[in-house]
Design a protein that fits this description.
Blueprint lengths: L7 E3 H11 L4 E4 L6 H8 L5 E4 L3 H15 L3 E5 L3 H15 L4 E7 L15 H5 L5 E4 L6 H13 L5 E7 H5 L1 E3 L15 H13 L3 E5 L6 H14 L3 E4 L13 E5 L5 H9 L2 E5 L22 E6 L13 E4 L2 H5 L14 H14 L11 H11 L5 E4 L5 H7 L8 E2 L9 H11 L5 E6 H6 L4 H6 L5 E6 L4 H10 L14 H8 L2 E5 L5 H10 L4 E6 L11 H6 L8
Parallel strand pairs: 2-3, 2-4, 4-5, 5-7, 6-7, 9-10, 9-12, 10-11, 12-13, 13-14, 15-16, 15-17, 17-18, 18-20, 19-20
Antiparallel strand pairs: 1-8
Helix pairs in contact: 1-2, 1-6, 3-4, 3-15
């Protein structure tokens, strides 16, 4: 006779139990009545921190940033309908940035499905183009199965977001807390033959170039790639918003391949006879609109390493395609030996010299000069300080002048999503309370998720938020002035006093308009012990690091229509 006594739990408790099994330690949420049972399960968890956010877009961006920082799926809970729609912004970032993430969406009771019940949406229809998998847990006894599959899918191959629907009545149902193994992390490694092909290609190359980026890296991966490049004296460039994958101070680092690329680096890429792309997707931003490499078969010999087989050959046809996890690939770099010194020293030195010249500050208009601010930050911030940003022309100064020194010190969306900087800074400071966290945001960018300043205050997070205020949507104005001269519309902004706005939340706030005011403002912010906004009033003329607004107007093009 079986003397085992079953202890029954509601679905919310079972769900959180399985999140704990998968190693989840943080969830980001905006509460909703559709998943009250899951919130109740979180109440009793002493292994998971529940972070209350102010809007689902901010919550999903925080979960995405957590995924970048930890390498594990970031977890977010939102309610149905408008909650899920708001979360789409973070899901799109996770998809294009190849970040592991699991979004749980509360849903109406199962018996109400397909009646357009209150806030009902079709998760599959909404998220199918931006998620690796969309599922709905209809049976309380299958929660563990679905959660395990979600974590495995989010992390395998090219990582990305997974969406799981949680019907309200399913979460209220009862079942057992059955234990299971955590989902396995599937990794692929290069073959010995593939490593020999790389060595052979390097033997034949006169002007090789490594481009680093993409998912699946670790700090150890970064160090191994750096040692490999140093041993063979190879020049290394970083794909769009992966500048922290290789110490920018290193003599083999030659710059970033993305928005506002150094024109000389772009020319060198075109002149190269071997491109080894270690991890990046080689998307539109990294290839300057698919112009640095010809489509579909580049003139340069292309070796593409990526963990997702569907990515290899999707846009560019490489001569050598290697499906491998980047950590596993880096483990085998030390066996690549060349028969002789290939004489790349001059080539690497030229690219490095061009980079060094490019990062020398070029003066821009106005009394507050971004080039000096970013250069100063690069000098004084800790080596492991985390710098976050969203999207806008202000980021071009960061890309050009900030020198990233260690892995995972850059949090920025390759998808180009505005509003990312502040939620990412909140997630970064929660994850690494001992590290400096600096958020950059344009005035338009900041207002997209400014309500998450309340989250930073709620958790007492001493982050520094630098708002670049030029009273316009700068990127759009730049293109508008160029393509539709003297027809400015919808790009001029009326802003609040951002410093006063910050103080109204209980944060610190200061407004500056001259470069000399930045150093004391930064030091005060770093010492404040609470969130601090530094509002920088910059000249609208300083629209890019290299061109003023007036210069862009003078070079404007007449609009062309078919």
């Amino acid at each position: 006779m079986n003397s085992r006594v079953s202890i029954m739990h509601h679905g919310g408790e079972i769900l959180i139990h399985h999140l704990e099994i998968e190693g989840c330690d943080t969830v980001y949420c905006v509460p909703g009545e559709s998943y009250l049972a899951a919130l109740d399960g979180l109440h009793d968890s002493n292994r998971i921190q529940t972070v209350i956010c102010r809007q689902e877009g901010g919550a999903s961006m925080m979960a995405e940033a957590y995924g970048k920082l930890s390498g594990k799926p970031g977890v977010c809970f939102v309610t149905r309908g408008p909650g899920a729609a708001n979360a789409m912004s973070g899901i799109h970032i996770a998809y294009q940035d190849s970040t592991p993430m699991v979004l749980f969406v509360g849903m109406p009771p199962r018996e109400f499905r397909d009646r357009e019940a209150f806030q009902e949406i079709d998760l599959g229809a909404i998220f199918s183009s931006t998620a690796k998998w969309v599922g709905v847990i209809d049976d309380v006894d299958r929660i563990g199965e679905y959660v395990g599959r979600a974590f495995a899918t989010a992390s395998a191959g090219r990582p990305g977001p997974v969406i799981l629907g949680l019907p309200e009545d399913m979460l209220a149902s009862v079942g057992e807390k059955a234990d299971k193994r955590p989902a396995p992390l599937v990794k692929s490694a290069p073959t010995a033959s593939e490593i020999k092909q790389i060595a052979k290609a390097l033997e034949a190359a006169d002007q090789p170039l490594l481009i680093v980026g993409g998912p699946g890296w670790t700090g150890e991966t970064s160090q191994k790639v750096q040692a490999f490049a140093e041993r063979l004296n190879l020049p290394v460039a970083a794909a769009f918003r992966f500048q922290d994958y290789f110490d920018n101070r290193h003599q083999n680092y030659v710059g970033h391949v993305g928005i506002a690329i150094n024109p000389k680096l772009a020319a060198h890429i075109r002149d190269s006879d071997l491109i080894i792309a270690m991890g990046p997707r080689l998307g539109e931003m990294t290839t300057s609109g698919y112009t640095l490499l010809n489509l579909p078969s580049p003139e340069q010999k292309l070796i593409h390493i990526h963990p997702g087989p569907e990515e290899l050959g999707q846009v560019y046809c490489p001569e050598i395609a290697i499906c491998a996890s980047l950590a596993e690939f880096a483990d085998r770099l030390d066996i690549i030996e060349l028969s002789e010194d290939r004489g790349w020293s001059k080539w690497t030195e030229t690219l490095r010299a061009d980079y060094e010249a490019h990062v020398q500050p070029v003066e821009t208009p106005g009394t507050l000069k971004m080039e000096q601010v970013i250069s100063y930050l690069s000098e004084v911030l800790d080596e492991n300080a985390i710098v976050t940003n969203g999207a806008g022309n202000f980021t071009a100064w960061i890309h050009r002048y900030y020198r990233y020194r260690s892995y995972r010190t850059q949090l920025a969306p390759t998808s180009g999503s505005m509003g990312y900087g502040l939620p990412a800074a909140v997630a970064a400071k929660l994850k690494h309370p001992d590290r400096q966290v600096i958020c950059f945001a344009g005035d338009g960018c900041f207002m997209m998720t400014s309500q998450e300043l309340a989250t930073a205050v709620h958790y007492g997070l001493p982050i520094v938020i630098i708002i670049v205020n030029n009273q316009m949507y700068g990127t759009i104005r730049m293109h508008q002035e160029k393509h539709f001269p003297e027809r400015v519309i919808a790009t001029t902004l009326t802003n609040p006093d951002f410093a006063a706005f910050a103080r109204s939340f209980g944060a610190e706030g200061v407004q500056i308009s001259e470069t000399r005011e930045f150093r004391p403002a930064l030091q005060k912010a770093l010492d404040a012990g609470k969130p601090t906004v530094i509002e920088m009033l910059v000249s609208p003329e300083a629209l890019t690091p290299t061109q003023t607004l007036s210069e862009i107007r003078s070079q404007s093009l007449e609009p062309k229509f078919d």
